[in-house]
Design a protein that fits this description.
heterodimer, A: 476 residues, outer membrane lipoprotein receptor (LolB), chain A, 16-stranded mixed beta sheet, two-stranded antiparallel ribbon, 11 helices, B: 651 residues, 3 domains, 8 helices, 31 strands, 9% helix, globular
């Protein structure tokens, strides 16, 4: 009897989400996300959607999706099959400040914070549209190494600092399959889930955002500051997709590095920062800043990473890629507190702009969201000294990235929220960024970002000079 | 009309600029264009008995263009035009304008007797008695020399494999770990004209035509020996600078023949004394100065420097070497000229006697250096005569006969008839000395050892050491020994003060080593109890020790302009802090410098009001100097305190 009721629910969900289950061809040539998008695109008669369908129809994309599904044991649709969704929660639904009250379930799927933002007076979202759920997957390097961990039964455990190590005590992020893999494909606790998020990193071996714009806005919704920069990220070990392959020489003790060079405005032009993470839990990040007015490099340390990246911007150095805090079990508790479906911005920037900012860049004109299966990670600051007393991150069950994030300040007030649109490339599974919306619920300031990802010649345009601040200072 | 045109220059450019919020979008990939226009005005608030007066009003127009067509090539063009409108605002001929700098006792209309001379020794040309004088001349109004305008014009090539890069052009590079005071940051001479050394180091350094090459030893496959010594990721920077520059500064020169004035940040013209503080003076003695600089563009005088960078001991280290040229001078006596017929050193009034036999010299003076020294300091020489006159005035015996009587000059004290006479000594201001330095820097965070404060933050430590070999100094105390005629060198007394200028270089100049050390700590301060603090307060404490070897020889701080003597150990403390409030729109930036031996204190407070978007940057800057006027570098500017309001438009 119970099974029958479940089947009915699944059928209802499939129909509601526009997923014609009975019409699906053999899954080797397609997948349910692709079919849902085909149906949706044909209904909407929108060139952007057609372009997206074309991208996810790439045989390489379908093959990768299938291999990841086989490895994980599920895809998003398999998980959705097990859940009952409101009847109105279906692709094509447009939500505004005027009609959101008609859909009381929205607060649950958006979280209350984002629900309030729809039609809100600060950092608001004017219009939101639900599109079909995608199936996401990481690139082939992560696929093969994650498979290797599983098939070779390679054990990854934690040392006394909570860092990932192999059985021989060596750091998993520095060598072997663990250096480029999702270590706990079915996380059993918060620490494992945290490490999945850390391992996901930026979801591409070499990243260039050229450029990235930061827009800060006042509590009154007025533009305050605007910055333009180039940003880079490098995965240092067990590289298989983008040259240089293997390990980056000279980075034997480091896991990855992020770097940024500012062009505008004029008073920060030439500011260059490089932050590199050591695998050792007891070793602070190598964190250097070139200050053009001094023509000198400053060494930053520890709590400097809690400072805003730029004046007026609601983004600290620890907030790069939403979460770049060093894992520290002495300082933080990591809890897996639930599994939830959430509506979060869709990662279709490779085909079209799915999150359009208002002209003043202080709010969202239009945002497309999709239903995502997530684990909910809670990180509690035990020391009472960190900028966030608590962090809730919804980690995608397919892509292992942050789908949504909310933090609380040390006094317990809901603080900053993070929503991002990703520039994800279906044919390779590589991820990148397209834009971010950060809302500060304490002071009602808003930071938005727009990024343009580089996809061509990444083996040539990014090299170690970006990760040596003494060379980066002369970038341009 | 010319003045009106100059005053209007920055304003016209400012208002005519189309106001984009950000840098100009060139539409060409890799090409960027940005710039700024800054206009400031200041008030001097520490002028004795003078109330507040308008001070420097600096302006800047800057343009920066960069082009990076690919990862191999980068082109940068950075130009700026600078000036100071204060001479226009406070011109001597403007109503109630000008910065008075009168002698004590002068009657100031509407004020009364003037009692406290600020001792700027400003240019007093066109200034009649008891009137307000020009604050400065035209030197700083617009800096139009090409070397003042080109801030950077460079091209950089980078090897495809990242093994090396070469940058060529006119640009600057900063060395060292110290802020505020420079130890190893010696690649470039300094522009001390506008704010002396009390401004951003980026604006202080004089860019030079140079070639810089960086070599990555690991990529070149030659890092093995370094790794064996524990040096990680070694790289070598080599700089070749064929354009040799000397530091720019302006002397407030009140003498009629050489009218220069840098206003409140001009260096004071040295009073001519025979002791540093309170001698009887050198009446009738003047000094003409002649610059001797290295060849401006030369292979033989070119500067070389290199820096080995590497990781060690958990931090970043460098070993530096510099073989260049001194950018500040020593003075060398060339000779002197006897002016017969004028007691005030003016050859156009009196007659300068030609070189006497055996006294040939490079400037055609009457006497060469040895004769000058003997005539001035030999037994019965000019100094003896002055001192005897001084004693006579105080009730002593009849003075000795003036040595100039032998050249036909009169001596009223001894009833010898003849014309008034005076002596102009010729002194070479000589920059042409090599500078050889070795240095070491190190910086690392101390998180392995200490975590303190509300956020358990770790300080970072910065260390910088340098050793300079054979730095030339003028001495303030020398024992003259030259002979000429009756002046046989038997004078065994000690010459002090500016009289030391008139002593042969062989006895006046010595070369000594300087060993300097700086240790600094940076700490991000999170204030206990301030729970809503959004950004740490950057704090930086530095301690300096500058040890000059054998300094007990009376080494002068900077002849010919600063006659204070160098202490063996000169110690400085600096403390900098930066605090941003209100979503980092209100920014306080403070810098304190303490000169322990000179008992000088400097504090600069900047307040930025970044409330007006990306283009407009208003700033208030307050600088306060406190110290003995005779003690450089801080005390020199004891009365130069100012409050400046500036507005920058950037794009």
């Amino acid at each position: 009897m119970k099974n029958k009721r479940l089947q009915i629910k699944l059928a209802a969900a499939g129909i509601a989400l526009g997923l014609g289950m009975s019409t699906a061809p053999a899954m080797a040539e397609t997948n349910r996300a692709l079919e849902a998008w085909k149906t949706f695109a044909s209904e909407q008669n929108n060139a952007d959607y057609n372009k997206w369908v074309e991208l996810i129809s790439d045989p390489k994309a379908i093959k990768l999706a299938k291999e990841w599904k086989d490895l994980r044991g599920y895809d998003a649709y398999d998980l959705m099959d097990k859940e009952t969704f409101p009847e109105d929660l279906k692709p094509g639904l447009v939500i505004t400040g005027e009609n959101k009250a008609d859909y009381p379930w929205l607060a649950k799927y958006l979280t209350k914070e984002l629900y309030d933002a729809i039609g809100g007076s600060w950092g608001g979202i004017k219009k939101m549209k639900i599109v079909p759920t995608n199936t996401y997957y990481m690139h082939n390097g992560y696929l093969q190494n994650t498979k290797a961990l599983k098939e070779q039964n390679i054990n990854i455990k934690f040392d006394e600092d909570g860092q990932m190590v192999y059985d021989d005590g060596s750091y998993a992020l520095l060598s072997g399959p663990g250096a480029s893999a999702i270590p706990f494909i079915n996380p059993k606790n918060g620490l494992e889930l945290n490490w999945n998020l850390v391992a996901n990193s930026v979801a591409i071996e070499t990243l260039e955002l050229n450029p990235i714009y930061f827009y800060s806005c006042t509590a009154e919704g007025e533009p305050d500051r605007e910055y333009k920069a180039n940003l880079w990220w490098w995965h240092y070990h067990n590289r298989t997709e983008i040259e240089p392959l293997g390990d980056i020489p000279g980075k034997e003790e480091m896991v990855e590095g992020g770097a940024i060079f500012f062009f505008e405005p004029n008073d920060v032009r030439g500011l260059a920062g490089v932050r590199q993470r050591y695998a050792s839990g007891s070793k602070e990040d190598d964190f250097k800043l070139f200050i053009p007015t001094l023509r000198r490099t400053r060494l930053l340390t520890g709590s400097d990473s809690e400072d805003p990246l730029l004046s007026g911007v609601e983004l600290s150095w620890d907030d790069w890629r939403s979460y770049w805090v060093k894992t520290d079990i002495k300082k933080f508790d990591y809890n897996l507190i639930g599994e939830e479906f959430v509506l979060t911005p869709v990662s279709t920037v490779h085909a079209y702009n799915s999150m359009v900012l208002t002209e003043d860049k202080c709010a969202v004109e239009y945002m497309e969201v999709e239903l995502r299966p997530t684990w909910k990670l809670e990180i509690i600051d035990k020391s009472g000294k960190y900028q966030y007393s608590k962090r809730h991150a919804w980690i995608d069950k397919e892509f292992y990235n942050t789908r949504r994030q909310i933090t609380w300040d040390p006094r317990g007030n809901m603080f900053k929220s993070w929503d991002e649109k990703r520039d994800w490339k279906p044919s390779t599974g590589e991820g990148n960024w397209g834009g971010v919306l950060i809302r500060n619920n304490v002071n009602h300031r808003v930071t938005t970002m727009n990024m343009t990802a580089t996809w061509e010649d990444l083996d040539v345009v990014v090299d170690e000079s970006m990760f040596d601040v003494d060379q980066l200072r002369d970038y341009q | 009309m010319k003045k009106i045109t100059k005053i209007s220059l920055a304003a016209i450019l400012g208002v005519s600029m189309v106001a984009p919020a950000m840098a100009i979008d060139t539409g060409i990939k890799g090409l960027t264009q940005s710039g700024r226009i800054k206009v400031g005005a200041s008030v001097l608030y520490d002028l004795p008995d003078q109330g507040n007066k308008a001070g420097p009003a600096n302006w800047v127009i800057e343009s920066k263009t960069t082009y990076r067509p690919n990862r191999q090539w980068t082109f940068i063009g950075n130009f700026w035009l600078r000036g100071d409108m204060s001479s226009q605002f406070t011109s001597y001929d403007s109503p109630n304008g000008g910065l008075p700098d009168q002698v004590n006792g002068a009657i100031v209309p509407g004020v009364g007797a003037f009692q406290q001379n600020a001792n700027f020794n400003l240019n007093s040309s066109n200034c009649s008695g008891n009137a307000y004088c020009a604050e400065m001349d035209d030197e700083l109004e617009v800096l139009t020399d090409w070397e003042d305008i080109i801030r950077e014009l460079s091209v950089k090539y980078r090897d495809k494999k990242g093994r090396y890069s070469v940058k060529f052009g006119r640009f600057q590079r900063g060395w060292g770990q110290s802020d505020g005071l420079r130890l190893m940051d010696v690649l470039h001479a300094q522009d001390l004209r506008q704010r002396f050394a009390f401004t951003d180091s980026d604006e202080l350094r004089l860019p030079a035509l140079m070639v810089s090459a960086d070599f990555n030893f690991r990529k070149l496959g030659i890092d093995g020996p370094f790794k064996a010594m524990g040096m990680k990721n070694p790289s070598l920077e080599i700089n070749f600078v064929p354009e040799v520059q000397t530091s720019n500064f302006i002397i407030n020169n009140p003498t009629p023949g050489d009218e220069t004035s840098g206003g409140i940040f001009g260096l004071p013209w040295a009073d001519v004394n025979d002791t540093t503080e309170n001698g009887p003076g050198f009446a009738g003695i003047g000094f003409n100065l002649y610059d001797n600089k290295p060849n401006r563009l030369s292979l033989s005088d070119a500067e070389w420097s290199m820096r080995l960078k590497f990781g060690a001991l958990g931090g970043s280290a460098t070993i530096n070497a510099f073989y260049g040229q001194q950018d500040l001078p020593v003075s060398k006596l060339i000779g002197s000229s006897l002016i017969v017929g004028d007691g005030f050193n003016d050859p156009s009034v009196g007659t300068q006697i030609p070189s006497i036999p055996g006294n040939s010299n490079s400037v055609g003076a009457s006497f060469n250096a040895a004769t000058t020294e003997a005539v001035l300091f030999g037994a019965g020489g000019y100094q003896n005569w002055l001192q005897s006159v001084d004693a006579f005035a105080k009730g002593g015996p009849v003075p000795i006969v003036s040595p100039l009587a032998g050249f036909g000059c009169g001596d009223a004290f001894n009833r010898i008839p003849g014309p008034d006479c005076s002596i102009n000594a010729a002194v070479e201001v000589d920059y042409d000395y090599r500078q050889l330095m070795l240095g070491f820097t190190f910086a690392r965070d101390l998180s392995d050892f200490i975590r303190i404060g509300r956020k358990s933050s770790a300080p970072t430590v910065r260390l910088e050491m340098s050793h300079e070999f054979d730095r030339p100094f003028n001495r303030s105390r020398v024992n003259p020994g030259a002979t000429f005629g009756p002046f046989d060198g038997s004078f065994a007394g000690e010459v002090t003060g500016s009289g030391a200028l008139a002593v042969e270089a062989s006895r006046n100049i010595v070369k000594e080593d300087i060993t300097s050390t700086m240790i600094g700590f940076d700490f991000p301060l999170w204030v206990p109890g301030w729970e809503s603090q959004a950004k740490s307060i950057f704090t930086s404490l530095q301690l300096f020790d500058i040890y000059t070897h054998n300094s007990d020889q009376g080494l002068l701080q900077q002849s010919t302009y600063a006659f204070t003597e160098i202490q063996d150990h000169q110690n400085f403390l600096t403390f900098g802090w930066n605090m941003a409030l209100d979503s980092e729109r209100l920014v306080f930036d403070g810098l304190y410098i303490r000169d322990f031996q000179g008992s000088g204190d400097f504090y600069r407070q900047r307040i930025d009001f970044n409330y007006f978007g990306d283009s407009w940057r208003p700033r208030v800057e307050i600088a306060h100097f406190s110290g003995n006027k005779e003690s450089g570098p801080i005390g020199t500017f004891n009365n130069s305190d100012y409050v400046e309001v500036s507005l920058t438009y950037q794009f």
